[in-house]
Amino acid sequence: MRAPIIAGNWKMNPTTLDEAVALAHAVEAAARVAPSVTAVICPPTIWLADVQRAIGRDGISIGAQTMHFEERGAFTGETSPLMLDGLVQFVILGHSERRLYDGETDERVGRKVASAVAHGLRPIAAVGERAEERRAGETAAVIDRQVRAAVGGLDSLTRTGLVIAYEPVWAIGTGDAASAADAQEVCAQIRQILRAADADAADAIPIQYGGSVTAENAGELFSQPDIDGALVGGASLKPDQFAAILRAAARA
Ligand code: 13P
Fold first, then answer.
1. Band of the pLDDT at 176, cuts 50, 70, 90?
2. How far apart are the C-alpha atoms of 49 and 36, rounded to whole Å?
3. Phi, psi of 95 (to 5 degrees)
4. How large is the average pLDDT for residues 196-210?
5. Would 48 be classed as within a structural domain?
6. Bridge partners for 93 per DSSP
7. What is the rounded average pLDDT for all residues in the chain?
8. CATH code: domain of residue 183
9. Is residue 247 part of a domain?
């Protein structure tokens, strides 16, 4: 009942427009191998309009990597949900790199998720524990706090388009992905928290895993009952690898 969603978070890559458009075209071509899977690319904000023009409206989906919750105002460097309207279908919110480097708090993530939904954008709300939190046995408590905060501004989860991405911080960019069993355990916990918030909607909400997802480990991750796709960093910049991850999702 949950179609997989594979989103590529390009982060601050590539650094030129020509490369961004070329990568979008290559990923779009690669995505044809798995038409049953929703493929999303999340380029840097500055390339969003050009990438959208390049791939057209019927191609793969596009997401932003962040946005502000306010529609307008004195927020230097920020992007309003009104500016993303018509440009993207998805927006990543609360990525751990923004929590770490840009002061993204649980409270702000909750406001952003509510704002995205109010503006018809599908939030990909990212949660995940840091290495020291995992070592201290705090994973479940961190996930509980972050997920509750992320959905706290929504009256209901029904027809919100919400996606949750579980990204353990220690697994991001390290080559050290969570084991499928560990990722499943946390994704099942996330599903329980969503059930407590909205029992009717929880089973329809896609939960992605992110953190060193590769063509090699994707299949086992996607075979888990509560993992409905991936938020992919490094491998999303390599169209062949992204295609292999899409194929793994189509098989699962
Ligand atoms: P990597 O796939 O490079 O580990 O990055 C994961 C990530 O942060 C996606 O948002």
1. very high
2. 25
3. -55, 145
4. 97
5. yes
6. 125
7. 96
8. 3.20.20.70
9. yes
Q: Could you tell me if 246 and 217 are in contact, meaning their C-beta atoms sit under 8 angstroms apart?
A: no
Mean pLDDT of 111-131: 98
Is 1 part of any domain?
A: no
User: Measured from the CB, is residue 233 less than 6 Å from ligand 1?
Assistant: yes
Q: Which domain holds residue 170?
A: 34-96+103-251
Q: Per-residue pLDDT tens for 88-116?
A: 999 999 999 999 999 999 999 999 999 99
Which helix (H) or strand (E) is 187 found in, with range? helix 180-197
Ligand 1 atom showing the smallest separation from residue 211 Cα: 4
In this prediction the pTM is: 0.98
Of ligand 1's listed atoms, the one at least distance from the Cα of 212 is 4
Enumerate the H helices of 72-135 as residue ranges: 81-84, 96-101, 106-118, 131-135
**Number of domains making up the chain:** 1
What confidence score (pLDDT) does residue 1 get?
67
Q: Exactly one of 28, 97, 104, 167 is catalytic; name it.
A: 167
CB-neighbour burial class of residue 185 (10 A; exposed 0-12, middle 13-18, buried 19+) = middle
Task: Say how many CA atoms lie within 13 Å of 223 toward its Cβ.
Answer: 7
